[in-house]
Amino acid sequence: MILRQVSFSVEDGRFLAILGNNGVGKSTMLKCLNRILTPAGGEIQVDGDDLSRLSGRERAQRIAFVAQSVPSIQMTVHDIVMLGRRPYMKWSFTEKDHVIVHEAMDRLGVSHLRGRFLDQLSGGERQKVMLARALAQQPKILLLDEPTSSLDIQNQYQVLQIVRDICHEKGITAMVVIHDLNLALRFCDQFLMLRQGEVYRWGGREILDRQALKEVYRVDAEIALVNGYRMVVVD
Amino acid sequence: MNLENSPLESERDATAYRRNQIKSVTFLIALFAVLLAAVLLSLRAGSYNTPTLELIKGIFNRAADSKINLVVRGSRLPRICTAIIAGAGLGITGCVLQAVLRNPLASASTLGVSQGASFGAAFAIIVLQMGSAVGLGMMAIPLCAFLGSVSVAVVILGLSRFRQISPEGIVLAGVAISSMFTGGTTLMQYFADEVELSTLVYWTFGSLGNTDWGDVGRMSVVVLLTGAYFIWNRWDFNALLSGEETATSLGINVRRLTLVNMLLCCLTASMVVSYIGLINFIGLVAPHIVRLVVGNNHVYLLPGSAIAGALLLLLGDLFARVAISPVILPIGAITSFLGGPLFLYLLFKGGRRSADS
User: Which ipTM was obtained for this model?
Assistant: First the structure.
């Protein structure tokens, strides 16, 4: 068993960073939240609904997931984003689906790529397309598994800024598994630290202190203020 | 951060997407038009040099010469319809198997379905000695071939259901089972007499000329019903391209999708192979040809693979009939002989394109 006694709640519109060292179960937790993996016990509720009682389609209408790796697909950006409407689709897509897809592409700034195949795009562009697909699902919760791990610094900032803005604008709750603590401190407003398969701490930026970094990551580090932003500086 | 485009850019981008859609639809229409042309060519191919208009009239039993009506309706048209239905079935099942197993080399023959059919046919001819049976006994070979290929499907599905093997594992299991059934067939051949051996070898050559309208009807029902189900699932196959986790997060039961579609593919391919014998490469090559133009979107790829499969088998049959007329070459050998180089060409073309991009 990787995770046990994990209990926390997140309010609408929050951007939660899931932190912890490698193999602690961050991605597993994300996948349990979305029932990609089935937890052995416990309950996950969204707006009071128990997720295990919902059908796959109903769950996909509430929770969207962006995986760590973006496969190389010979399908147009428009069609990839259209996949986000699959949980709402009957025989075919409606005009409303197309409008939502266009809005999602515009919001992520990938409309100009809509006629191109995904495998012709850069890593940053692909990640934005996948975010647009997730946004087209019109979810209440957005789960992101290390979305910035293969991006350059410009794309890392762009992607996380877009997610934060979406959370604030649309009241979507986002949960991101992330290793870069400075990016997390910059963009997220809630933090969940895992240690040895359990929740070590959860709360605001204040939970990341010298003691937490020592006990979770086994490093001596302090939190410094640089240009008004909190940064982790390893001793 | 400015992510917005100018109206001019947006218009250009929308045009690019529409152009892509138009290209895909045009390709499918063109493919269908070539198929119709191949039907006419196939209708003309034969020892009678009959005007095309008379042949078309013959389809509706309206040709001036009653012999033409008889040749068209009794011989050439069932052959053409068999090629179209069987080719479409093999093409679309190849496309679906490649999607659900996430493997571009997947097809009915890769999974061992054809080898299972071969084993079944060998069992009927050599063990049950039904090679020269008449009446209902004539059904023994296609029936045993069907049971042979279905048994392969059952073993593979059983393995994936109870041993929880991955899509890659399923393809490898198919290779192992193929090898087993090929060994079994060879063993039976070892103990067969000359007549049984030649009957079996003739069956494995594959033939489109042994089916009647009843066979065409039965194949059509299966291919049309499973084809409709595959097209119903077109967006689920698209979602699978994004990976199993993403597909699950989109509300798809990936395991059920894989198993049900594999079962239907095996049933369709078994049905086809049991009637026309071993036809390789159609299911493998047809989706790859269409993919070169329309990409991986199954909205276009599924119907395209069906049309391309029908076209390839019909052209293969045409070649087999006219190459050294009046001798009709075995269709199974022709599709393998021409399909191999075609697949190599697609492989190198695809490789070069990847390197270029």
Answer: 0.88
